[in-house]
Amino acid sequence: MALEKNPSTQPTFSIARALQIALPIVVLTITAGYLARQAVSAAGPGPAPDGQVDYRAIGAIPVSEDGRVKPLDTVARNALLQISGKQSMVDEMLLESEDKNEADRSAIRWLTEILTGRPEARDRAVFRIDDPELLGLIGKTQDDGKYFSINDLAPAAAEIQEQSIAASQKDDEDQTRFEKHLLELAHKVNLYRQLASGLRPHLIPPDSAEQDWEPLWTAASGTGMRINDAASRRAGWATWRDVLIAFQDGNAAEINDAVQAQLALKEGLARQDVRKAEFEQWFNAFRPFALGIALYILAGLLGLLTLMLRPVLGPGWYRSLWGAGTAVLALTLALHTGALIARMWLQGRPPVTNLYSSAVVVGWATVLFALAIEMISRLGIASFASSFVGVATLVIAHNLAMDGDTMGVMQAVLDSNFWLGTHVITIILGYAAVFLAGFLAILYIVLGMFTPLLDKKSARLLSGMVYGVTCFALMFSFIGTVLGGIWADQSWGRFWGWDPKENGAIMIVLITAIILHARWGNLLKDRGIMVLAVSGNIITAWSWFGTNLLEVGLHSYGFMDGAMLKLAVFAISQLIFMGVAMAVPMSCWVSNYKVNPHRLQTGASGPLGLDKQEWQIYGLLVPCALLMGLTFSVTILTCFFRLDLIGAIGITAVGSPLLILLISTVLYLAILWRPGVQLLNSKPASLNGI
């Protein structure tokens, strides 16, 4: 007799199953479509309409600055970023046109006005001044705003120059806060004057391979920039003279014709330089790292949602939501990877050449490691942790870009060789692994202390993640340190000199070795291992940035004034996590409570042993947690990118998201600990040491 198949074992198809399959596909398609639209938009709308100046064509003009050929658009963005802290201008310039792409082209428009001597350039409010004393020096107050024009600074120009010269003669540690801000302003004014005088960038291309690029002033043959003078030494000066004359006349058609004549000169340049300049203009408009920040936030929120809803979602919806978050993270990693490869091609160098690129690579490597872990664990924990690190490192990179061209090189890399290239890349991978282990440990502490999500299985998996990542961290850190010693022996004649950077590298090796030995020797349990892993964040941050702040040793080329406070705040935050984890007994951790036996007997318990009423309360935690994550992301973007995202409601851009974050955090804790009164009556799980 033939066996009948059990209908209950046959695969069934339902609308719910279709939606579960469709969710990650739809999310990935929408995200990829958004990136594709941004990529097409970055290519530009084509030639400007009749009667309008084609500023995109002006931005495409190849120039030379800092030893490499780049589009004028890059010079404009970098100069505006150094002077105002942003790459676009949201002022009266944007109100003159309804073109939605005007904001992106405002930097090249601003620089064009400076280069061509347009009077409105002196009225553009681009100089950001926050210091009250400095505002008083130029006759302004905080009520007058934060951005001022060169005309606003003109009455105090002599005073600024005199006091800045006096301040520059002091040692850095002896300079007051006002003097440091004054020197920053003087540097910005000097940059503006160099642009206005034609000293930078080098606009005139060589007529032959034996010649170098020349700035506009030099190419004018000492005519004092009298643009009607027919004398010229190069063809490039004649075409730029036509551009200047056309801008004086204000005829858009003549301006565009003169710009096209200038662009035609690129046929005489090296083809590789031309291709790189064309691609770099598109790369600037596409802004892959800014897009990466937004997508990492999206992936992190999806990971957080997956983590919070894991106990209440069925297997199908859980896999669907996890798949959506993982797909977005993978797509963002692909974008991050493509941007790194593009920078390598533009520079013709390894991926890590300065502090900016080191931050970009640390974020990339962290996400790469986490994505591999996530494919094994499928918990959403690694996705959330790596997304946070990805956002943080790209925000750090954005702030490091304030110094100018991010494709420049460090002093120590100018004589690059095999040992240095491999040392830098390997040690950066070690940084990334330590940070990933540290932030996974923070999640262990937070989830275990404040939520019932850290069950035995999750704790075991999370502990295994930290252990595995720490093994990789030790391997990369040790190998990178040895490679650095080999390079130092070749370059400086000694393998080890107890330089602060070298000390920081060996500290990373030691902390990772201590963590592994503590685990192997059963000296510490999971909680103690996690506390040590969090301490690795402090040591790595110090080795990465802190040693550069000392201004001693051979690795002090990355000095950043004011970064010590941010580093100290980060260290204090990590110490708080460590202190709370050790101070609060595990019997008080929410994840360590057991269910009252009568619930199991009556069958009233649900997932994780919580009854229906408690899960209704816990359900309120999810939107609170998402609101906390979202407002934290808005706070980061507002503080570091200075975006007035919600200024229209009359509250300061920084204060509003901070207020929402505070309220949501208090609400989260209030909801969480309210059912805790009932849970305290249950027996705590047995403790496993520290």
Word description of this protein:
This protein is mainly α and 690 residues long. Helix content is 64%, strand content 2%. Strands 1-2 form a two-stranded antiparallel sheet. Strands 3-4 form a two-stranded antiparallel ribbon. α17 crosses α18 and α17 packs parallel to α24 (612-641). It is globular, with a radius of gyration of 29 Å. It starts with 14 loop residues before the first helix and ends in an 11-residue tail after the last helix. Mean pLDDT is 76; it is low at 1-5, 92-101, 222-231, 411-415, 595-609, 638-657 and 671-690.
What would the keywords be for this entry?
disordered N terminus; two-stranded antiparallel ribbon; single chain; 690 residues; mainly alpha
How many helices does DSSP assign? 26
Biggest sheet, spatial arrangement of strands: 1-2
The helix/strand class is mainly alpha
Average pLDDT value?
76
Question: What Rg do the Cα atoms give?
Answer: 29 Å
Strand content bin = under 5%
Elements, N to C (H/E): HHEEHHHEHEHHHHHHHHHHHHHHHHHHHH
What is the 3D shape?
globular
